[in-house]
Known about the structure:
CATH topology: Ammonium transporter fold
Number of strands: 2
Shape: globular
CATH architecture: Orthogonal Bundle
Oligomer: single chain
Amino acid sequence: MEFTELEVLSFLISSAQVFIMVPGLALFYGGLVRHKNVIGTMMHSITAIGVVSVLWVLWGYTLVFGNSVGNWGFVGDLSKFGMIGVGLQEQAFMIFQGMFAVIAVALIAGGFAERIKFSAYVLFCALWVTIVYAPLCHWVWGGGWLGNLGSVLGMSEHGFSLDFAGGTVVHIASGAAALAAAFIIGRRVGFGSVTVTPHNVPLVLLGAGLLWFGWFGFNAGSSFNLASDDAINAFVVTNVAAATAMSSWLVVSWLVTKRPSASGAAAGAVAGLVAITPAAGFVGVMPAIVIGAVSGAVCFLAVQLAHRLRVDDSLDVFGLHGIGGMWGALATGLFVGIGFGALDADVSRIEQVLYQIIGILAAFAWSFIVSSIILLALNYTIGLRITEMEEEVGIDLTQHGEGMNQ
């Protein structure tokens, strides 16, 4: 791969911004859990940096951006294993893509917060990025079948499932994995009978702010050139969608719960950021407002439904990222070319929506099924869950030997 100096600079700047999202997520998740689980929950995000960054250099990158294996392009080969033959310019692109893998794994931890063994989490990170994330990313961005969907289906040669910055690759995949984890690991002790509230709302707001800031690199950086029209549009619609979703979440939650909460405002902003991610390079400002407004309301209702069904997705990963990503991916097909960009002349809007639906179903099914297999394998070998006594004490002390009061 060859890139211009401006593209290389854009990758490096955007990589730094996306990196900030990981400690931002640590603060966001850490503020939402109970006092006894803050350090352990934040460790999940920080550990993802260490595990995934190394694996990405060794084999993650080549599994995504190596030569396609098989006629349909299921996964990349090992031609770039350990950065063999990867020049410095391409390494800038590699590190940018690696940050996406890090944040995708870190997001999942919210689905089993407060009750997973740290050893099991570390192994899950390594297995998930290798077996789930890498093939899915190859399908969409590495030359795989979702990136050539029209040809695969015998329709348009130019038709494919649109995903500008990771709505399917990152958010649907992490949301599906978190849902699988919530089912397999089971509910926390006292779930449904013990009221669990965020222990530190200012941390939640600070984390959401850092996520919002980093998301500009996430979306605008996916243009490959921060000085391009694509980057400018992505930056603007990212902010608009997040602001609109935060507002719509507050309105709906105010009507339902009679109180507009600060943590709810933060969650609403994240829902909007998720939903605009696949569409950021394909739609203008007005569609972004619609995408944000719908995502705030729909994600709030999805979270409420999960609670009613007693699904213990601890930090609402599926409600925010799974549902938000699905809506965003569908909305990309509905609104592509309105206000910005263009729908391919050889592809009808109905056809594009079909491609988007296939991408949604493929990402969800792949991540949910394979994540479940990984989790079950870990559960029947080293075990996934801490004991009830350890859960009562908290993962800070039992898993890490550290406490907030030390």
